[in-house]
Amino acid sequence: MKLIAPIIALLAGCATAATAAPRNSDPDWPCQQVKVAELSVAAFWSGPAVEPATSGWQTNDAVAALVAAVTQRRLPMEAATQRIATFARDAGEERDRTMPLVFAGVFDVLNREREKVIGGLDRFGQRQKTLAEGLRQDGEALRSAQTATPPDDAKVSELTQRLLWDQQFFDARRQSLSFACDLPTIIEQRLYGLAQAIQAHIN
Asked: Is the peptide bond before 150 cis (omega within 30 degrees of 0)?
């Protein structure tokens, strides 16, 4: 069974990759990007003081409608910026009061969206660690079956097939992770761009 050693070596590499977190203190974080659990309003906003969670932006129908539109990633940033400019123009003398509410809504919506993504990535990382541990245990069982006296050829064949299948599943999950790991940054970039567009219309 010359195939056994390469399989086990490959699985060991998978397990190491799953548990390594060289740039983060959270052992369950599966991404190479540094984990930032929470966003700060001050990192995106230098306008009038506003507390997104308690600002009451949802009670202003016009603000809520604008926030719902511009926070959708399918809406190009150029179009979102134009909608913000039109809203600011139409707000007239109320602009300096309503534009901070727009930011509050944008921050609130995108921050909650980002928190869900972070939570999903945490769960993904925990699951990958569990899968890696299962691969390690199956690898040990395979070695035991291979070195048994007499060798258990049927067991070796069964475990080999199981390990190959599980390793392919593990790798497929890891390969799908790249886009998900980029999502928090994509959300942050949209939040920053929208915040700059909003602030541009405050005196």
From this structure: yes
